[in-house]
Amino acid sequence: MLGSTHGTLTTDSRRARVVACGEPPAPAVHSRAPGGDDLDVSGRPLHSTVPDLDRFFRPESVAVIGASDADGRPNTGITRQLMAWAERVGARLHPVHRTRPTVFGVACSPSVADLPEPVDLAVLLVADPLPVIEELAEAKVRFAVAFASGFAETGEAGAAAQDRLAAAVARSGLRLLGPNTNLNAFEKFRDDLEGPAIALITQSGHQGRPVFTMQELGVRLSHWAPTGNEADLETADFLSYFAERPEVGAIACYVEGLKDGRAFLLAADRAARNGVPVVAIKVGRTETGARMAASHTGKLTGADAVVDAAMRQYGVIRVDGLDELQDTAALLARAQRPRADGVVVYSISGGTGAHFADLASEAGLTLPRLSDAKQAELHEWIPPYLNVANPVDNGGHPVGDWRGRKIIDAILADPSVGVLICPITGPFPPMSDKLAQDLVDAAEQTDKLVCVVWGSPVGTEDAYRTTLLGSSRVATFRTFANCITAVRAYLDHHRFTLAYRSPFEDAPRTPSPSFRKAQSLMRPGRRLSEHAAKQLLRAYGIRVPREQLVTSAAAAVRAAGQVGYPVVMKASGAQLAHKTELGLVKIGLTSASQVREAYRELTDIARYEDVTLDGVLVCQMVERGVEMVVGVTHDPLFGPTVTVGLGGVLVEVLQDTAVRVPPFGEDQVRAMLGELRGRALLDGVRGGPAVDVDALVEVVLRVQRMALELDDELAELDINPLMVLPRGQGAVALDALAICR
Length: 741
Known about the structure:
The chain is α/β, with parallel strands linked by helices. Strands 18, 23, 24, 25, 26, 27 and 28 form a 7-stranded antiparallel beta sheet that branches. Strands 2-1-5-6-7 form a 5-stranded parallel beta sheet, covered by helices on one side. The two termini are about 50 Å apart. About 50% of the residues are buried. Residues about 5-35 and about 290-300 have low confidence and may be disordered.
């Protein structure tokens, strides 16, 4: 981690965005929801609201309701800590207690109404905060903190109590932190550290402790928001606030569940637009983790694949361990923007260099081969039999004299190098001491990132504790894995923010003409037949095969002649989700007799299975292409989500899909396709032609538009297969399932 009591690795991350995202064309019509530019077509907000939390973190006056100085009482210790905190931040503290005249020698008010001055912040040391809220509202208190537990984290009764508390807060006009929170916001922060700081948001105070203690290693922290159950103030509020603070270089989050997925994305969007990195642990990758998180704070953890995709979509860097959280946040908070993506591994051991380079390359870091001229320069100080192409192996001896610094400077001078990483697997003084000092001195003279991995498990060596941690210019790690994770996040973040354009800027604000056509097709609470689902697709300009719905064998023969042989015949009915398993699909029919026989078989099977049909579809047969799936589902946290993946039976066998949360642009659709393991199929394999990726992208964007406009009406949509034809020929939705809300 980066450590120092002085100096900084400054970041110039707040800048204009220059790369635009594409959106499908759709002319505007009358808005269906009020709000103009503040709401999208589905009535959701397009901008996060930044609460003014200055007086929460730096109040001028504080009231402690239920203050105590009685021996052995929990409130006594809390009161003492709050008094010390108020003194540090320059706030006047007023104890409130019905019977005590003084608390720790400070005059006590019997009630909120008797306070001698208006109060910015009230801390509620009471078992039930609900009765106090109305008093605080009458006294025009701006903020309150409720430590009490026994709310949503305990089950249905507690959730109902929390709902009543939230409703009272909403009526009052004040903002509440909690319930089920703690004292972390009122910790003692070091004020002797300089440079960009980490702001910390946690839903478990204990899980934030490792990041907080990084101050002892010279890493500055500016704020800590322990959000608890989030009856009012939530993670998104603090994320938006911290993203606007000039002293904040990175935001570190420990998130168990989200109160409002949309609000979180809007806050993450604000951070991305401001170039402020957000590093987060999000619990809930497994069923056990999700269950424990829900029991802790009573919030939804969300489908992990959707959470993961949504975070990636807005540049939130998701990590798994608290050690990764602290190391990655520290690096991102304080490192300058990279000058190049190239990473050079420099070591005194060929084995160490090879090991680290192998792990770094596997993680996706770029290790460029140094030019012949640069290798020749390095061989002026390094024996010619050692490899210096990258990784650079110096053999050990050059680090002990003047050559060590020459080598480091030469590597950093290479324009293809943005990061120098030196893994030191164990101390070997005085050589390791000299190497550490050379790295620190070189880092002071460069605008490139210098990282050191100090592998000693002891950690008391002077080269580590004094030289490396005493530097504001060197990022020091204890493990290969954490170094690689942090450097990858650092490079990815700056690439992301350089190209970032908020998807909310281009989000549709008014419904398209397709919307009114589609609304007439919806059947609340029912599944649409394939025929009706395809009409829905047609309304949004998504191509379907030539087909006719018929109700007799004679009509089927006529339709086949008009559609053109060969044809496919399928039973169509709202009850049919999987027709193939029931034998209700016939393909490759080439004659009138086959069509008549197929009609008879389909209707007989439907009668036997007691399935009501609206008819039989006679469809154009489309054979050549790659089968894909495009779908819409509703996530309880984020609302509509759009999925794309390999289709047909492969979607169930391989589950090779990618998901995004609308709104998003063409760049995100292409990124989704890039995440698929089977992406190469779209480019043609075994002599097959490349398919029309542009048409596939357009279908996904049109489905996104449908998902946004029909959010209140459409519960699920499944286009499977979507046949993507050879390049320039488009894509055809061969089957579709739609379920109305």
